[in-house]
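Morning run. Coffee first, then this:
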Amino acid sequence: MHTKEKILLEGMELFATLGYNGTSMTKIANRVGLQKSSLYAHYNSKEELFFDVTTKIAADYVDFVKSAFKNEGKTAQEKLYLSFQAHVKDMANHDSSIEFYNRFSSYPPKGLKDKVLEILRDSEEQARASFKEEIKKAQADGAVTEEVSPEEAARAFYGLLDGLSYETNYYEMDVIESHGESMWKVFWRGVQA
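And here it is:
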């Protein structure tokens, strides 16, 4: 792993667990195994590093969404269902990127809020655009009703996932999967042709 990648990884983990104010360049340098002055050779400030971490997480999320549609599903229903399941499993992971995303999408650091939310909203829009393309394909194949627009389907789909993401804080995976199955059943009934 290159030094910059390690800095991003350790920075993400510290920001996710300690918050923006609780994370210092000294702590990041120590975790990476660098002198603080060497860390400043890569990043001029904690804010710059924070935005690089935010941008990386946002880009990784878009890549994840796109890859989730490249599954083994043979029908539109199977493809969408397997994508939904991939999202549910990813949320229950509780890795640092999920913790970072949840923390800073809800409580961005003061003074950085507008830029953080702009980065995260852009990634959400890209993710939704991928989903809407899948819905359009399913509508063209006759699997999804045209009474529901791709935008409406995307809002419902991501609304379900947002609800499940909060449940990962207090339920075990088997309960989350059960709730996800119920949500999927209702979602599919609402969009199927």
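The chain has nine helices and no strands. Good start to the day.
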